[in-house]
Amino acid sequence: MGRIDQNYTSLEDILLSRNCVSEKDIHQAKHLQSEIGGLLGQTLVRIGALSEELLLQTQSEHLGIETLDAGDLPTDTSLYQQAAQFVGVKPGWFLSRKAAMWIYPESDVVHVIAQNILDGELRELMERLQFKKGLTTKYYLVTNYTLETAISRMVNLDDNQDQGLDDDTVKLKELAEQAPVIDFVNRVFSMALKENASDIHIEPYEHNFVVRYRIDGILHTRQTEPKSRFDAVTSRIKLLSGMDIAERRLPQDGRQTIRFAGQEIDLRVSSLPSSWGESLVMRLLKKETSLPDLEALGLQNRAKNSLEGMLSHPNGVILITGPTGSGKSTTIYKSLQGLNDGVRKIITIEDPVEYEMDGIIQIQTKAHIGYTFAKGLRAILRQDPDIIMVGEIRDGETATIAAQSALTGHLVLSTLHTNSALAAIARLIDIGLEPYMISSAVRGLVAQRLLRKLCPECKVPVKSKEGDEYILNMFKAGMNIDEYMGKEANWYAPKGCSLCSHTGYLGRVAIFEVAKIDGPLTEAILNNASLTQLVNVARQQGFITLFEDGIMKARQGVTTISEVTRVCGEEFSNVESS
Residue 10 — very low, low, confident or very high, per pLDDT cuts 50/70/90? Predict the structure, then answer.
């Protein structure tokens, strides 16, 4: 393959013309480039103005060179080393040029990747080979991760080469600012965003550390790296999140807004010292992410109508219950979004503020100075609000103020950690509310969980008769079977494809149970009814449980029975015992 004609429009002009970056981004990148050197495209990626994927796509279209994924690299290290011997160049030369090559057996094609695929020295070498030995050269554009993987196989890098480095704060900061470390952390973020991960886990062990992503509620290991890189990587992340990089003996929490791939991301980091180093967990929230509507979340039929009815009232407490990571915040924010009509004053108090919303006053608690939910709620009431959102009811004082606020004409939305909607009644009594206060102030209760959705590209149909018999034989005790058994079933099973990373699932859907507190249910609360009695009374008003809502979604082909039982096993046993 001959020399590529370089009389083309510059990368800078192409990126600007396609609105991939701004003039300000280019100026900032060039300033950094003048200090540390390197390529403009790589510098734009480093400052977070551009994603590596978009850079490669743009370069590929412009230069007519294919891209190659890390999974397509040969794993046999001898193919790389034999290629180096064949061309008569020491492996260290490729390390210095940030390039790699390999030749498959009985082939006359040399496959070449490099950070700068237009590198003059590299291309001159390949042209000499083509002339002298009749080889054909095939170039690829790759990510830094793919390139590092190939170079490590070619050069046989010593994983322990960084051992013995001075571990003081200055050295840690210097390591954190090195280009390879910045690139590595950027790749971690890039892969997490690409796979729509909610959390990134970096976990140290004796000889290595692993990077895991929580995708659709399940942890997946994506990278295993040598321990020698660990301190630099953790220091980089701690610097990004405003944490003390010198403190590695105590847990820390950090939060920062960072710019990555041209978008604003709210980064929350928790560090926890362990036997082999600090375990880090990062929560990533895209600031511009739009909230799905309630129906897209999975709220359907009677449950949707019940919640919308509760929200239409001018007063009362509405509680969203469920464990951490069950989607409560999304539901409550979407509800607030619907209530934000510009006529009513809405104030929230949260820990922390997860989504910034126009037209709503949002307050952050500050526990270290004693500014708790209860104190913040008392202050909010003096601001003449119509609607109040309390991030979480954690104690009797907050619960009492919330109930009193509802009785004095305010609509109050909040969350509570309970296993089911109606279990919130017992929880409120436990923290000090009297039954008469609950029955008067609480408008409704909502519980939710998140289930993985079947991948729409690869899910396969299964016989509905088998699924229906399975439900009837195993799960019909106490369930409102008639509400959905008459409808046509569309059972599907997971298969796995490249779109869903071969898991069979892609994305999540919420399941709900909604209990409106009125009529017979109000009377049952006043009479200190047990949870079983409350469920039976609620059923007379059409109440369905989380498990039943999950089964309905499984029959609709949205998820599977195994996924429903994985998430709702405990809740089902409660239903069956009733």
Answer: confident
CA quadruple 526, 443, 294, 392: dihedral positive or negative? negative
What does the CA dihedral 167, 171, 172, 173 come to, rounded to 10 degrees?
A: 160
For the chain, the C-alpha Rg in angstroms (whole number) is 29
Q: Which of 331, 387, 389, 340 is nearest to 364 (CA)?
A: 389
Residue count (the chain): 578
Calpha distance 507→460 (Å, rounded)? 17
Look at residues 501, 502, 490 and name the one whose alpha carbon lies nearest to residue 560.
490
Tokens of residue 96, six digits: 């210095």
Q: What are phi and psi of 289, to 5 degrees?
A: -65, 130
Helix residue ranges per DSSP H, 49-197 = 52-63, 77-87, 91-97, 120-133, 144-155, 169-176, 179-194
Lowest-confidence region among 87-101, 145-159, 409-423, 532-546: 145-159
Identify the residue whose tokens are 């977070």: 48
CA-to-CA dists, residue 171 to 161, 232, 271, 325, angstroms: 16, 9, 20, 37
Average pLDDT, the chain: 84
Q: Which amino acid is at 509?
A: V
Residue type at position 189: F
Beta partners for residue 203, in sequence order: 210
Parallel, antiparallel, or unpaired: how do β-strands 505-516 and 442-454 relate? Answer: antiparallel
The CB-side HSE value for 223 (13 A sphere, CA atoms) comes to 25
CB 433 within 8 A of CB 404: no
Question: Which helix (DSSP H) or strand (DSSP E) does residue 264 occupy?
Answer: strand 263-274
Q: Which two structure tokens, joined as six digits, stand for 262?
A: 């041209």
What SS3 class is residue 48?
coil
d(CA 197, CA 212): 10
Q: What is the DSSP string of 533-549?
A: HHHHHHHTTT---HHHH
Is residue 176 predicted with pLDDT exceeding 60?
yes
Question: Pick from 482, 269, 279, 253: which is nearest to 368 by CA?
Answer: 253
Q: What are phi and psi of 500, to 5 degrees?
A: -105, 20
Residues 574, 508 contacting (CB under 8 angstroms): no
CA distance 110 to 129: 10
pLDDT in tens, 523-532: 999 999 999 9
How high is the pLDDT of residue 16?
87
Cα 486 to Cα 331, 333, 410, 414: the distances in Å are 30, 35, 41, 36
Q: Nearest 5°: CA angle at 480, between 474 and 481?
A: 55
